[in-house]
Amino acid sequence: MTDLRIIPFGGVRENGKNMYAVSVNDEIFILDAGLKYPETEQLGIDVVIPDFEYLVNNQEKIAGIFLTHGHADSIGALPYLLQQLQVPIFGSELTIALAKLAIQDEADLKAFDDFHVVNENTEIDFGAVKVSFFNTTHTIPEALGVVLGTDEGQIVYTGHFKFDQTAEASYQTNYARLAEIGAKPVLALLADAAGTEDIGKPMVSEKKIHQYVEDSFVAAKGKRIIVAVVASNIQRVQQVIDATAKTHRRLIFSGQDVEQIVHAALNLGKLNLPMPKEELFADLKDLETLPAGQIVVLETGKMGEPVKNLHKMAKGENPNIRLGDSDLVFIATTPSFAVESYVAQTRNLLFQQGADVKQISTDLRSSGHGSAEDVQMMINFMKPEFFFPVSGEFRVMVTAKAAAEEVNIPAKKIIMAKRGDQYVYDGQTFEKKGGFTIGETMIDGDSLNDIGNVVLRDRRILSEDGVFVTVVTIDRKKRKVVSKPKMTSRGFVYVKANRDLMKEAGKLTIDAIEDYLKNAKAFDWNELKNGVRESLSRFLFNETRRRPMVMPVVMEVNQNRRPHHTKGQETTGQKGKKANGNKDQKKGQKNPGQNNNQKKQNNQAKQNKPKNQGNKAKGQKNQDQAKKQAANQ
């Protein structure tokens, strides 16, 4: 019997970070390797990726990574994963091009080139597993689903998909291929559940969205248009290009990521230009010379995510673009629920700058993810024995579960997985066994090191209650405090208005230190500081009902005191100086042209001056001798 296991590393009970492992005998097949953008409370974090420890420990078993499409939630973790293990990467032509862009800035990956282009006609034989693919409809061309054929049946992962009968050729689903897959036994279907939640409006086709974008551009006559879009949403970028050309405008890129992605898509023929490139595109420097009514700015941010950059623009922090009443800001992305409040705040700031604001998701229900009816249609094509809703938060997994039950999938065969669950097929059912903890790795800047929950907690405390610093000096030998504590507060209280609080905090600091110095059997800096920290934390909370981060800074005096010497005694250093002086005097006697008194003065100066000053004196002496010789000549 085949040893078959399914392990989610992300993408379940969360939005983004799609990554699933299917283990067949001694081979591991990784489906996607995505990231997610941080939630509001993850202060200062750039991106969040899965924990790769299990995969690194089992890297010799990994057959490859199979990518469904080129969005960051499916390929964004590759730069971090490939630094720890290097295995083959499989994906469509555009997906592989975007994956290469994602890792191009990593010095450790310059030589990595184990990429393999596949399409829905490709089949790869790994022995116990045959891997094949099928086209799906998403907001990026060449999105694929993945099929793992095993002796126990097929494991099908849809990737992100929806059904749209009006989709253009490079976005179309091959329904005949779906029927072909479903004609063979499908043991488990891992299906995109992200779009199954009913939000009260019918899903519209991309053709209608295309017309909506064009109408919005026409209505903004005379205004500069700033479009906020996810860089890898090629379908939306195409709609913006078409509307720009239709309204006789010029398109300007405001982010390096979007420019690279657009040019990669153009080179592969995945984007179409309705007019010559030089007539359509312009540079940022042209913002000052082109009339406002002829400008469209395509705005995105790091790794293609536009909201943070748009927020900075709304606060007037963008060095190139200053917003005003002659601007229309068109938000052509559907934000996740985790950042809805952040988007609302950004919209508010944009209106305060005087700009008009349109957001596509407030006027239309647009999504790259299938509705509950689409999931039901996929189930009817595949006829799976077991159903795993994935690619969404728990509430959408619940709505996908309800949709599956309506098309006769028994509730006991619907798996509501979470990260680290290991589902082992025993010939009858998928039983949860031997799961393990898969955490999140939080990336801040370019470091691969996990920031960790402790750092996030400290950042949250600093943002909410501020920091309180007390600086004090002690004499450990005399076991006493030798200087009055100095208090500093940032983001906690205004020091000048809270002198009594500061005075009492200083007294508590002294009491805590002297109590420790008096009673401690063995001196320990950490114990001393922790005692001060706990004493001050209790006091400050009782007085203010707030918990600032308390940072005691304790310094020690007379740490390297030199021993005293009685009169007439010489230290080793002094003896050395005298010896050097005598040696210098002997050297001086060899120069008959120099006065003996002058030599003594020079030697005395060498003893008294620091080394660098001695060097200066020596240089001056050489200059004087050179001048004397020149005069004699």
UniProtKB/TrEMBL annotation:
Domain Metallo-beta-lactamase positions: 16-212
Spans through the membrane: none
Stored Gene3D superfamilies: 3.10.20.580, Metallo-hydrolase/oxidoreductase, Ribonuclease Z/Hydroxyacylglutathione hydrolase-like
InterPro entries: Metallo-B-lactamas, RibonucZ/Hydroxyglut_hydro, RMMBL, RNase_J, RNase_J_2, RNase_J_b_CASP, RNase_J_C
Pfam family, one: Lactamase_B
Protein name: mRNA degradation ribonuclease J1/J2 (RnjA)
Keyword DNA-binding set for record: no
Region (Disordered): 556-633
Organism of origin: Fructobacillus tropaeoli
Alphabetic keyword roster: Cytoplasm, Exonuclease, Hydrolase, Metal-binding, Nuclease, RNA-binding, rRNA processing, Zinc
Keyword set includes RNA-binding: yes
Stretches with biased composition (Low complexity): 590-633
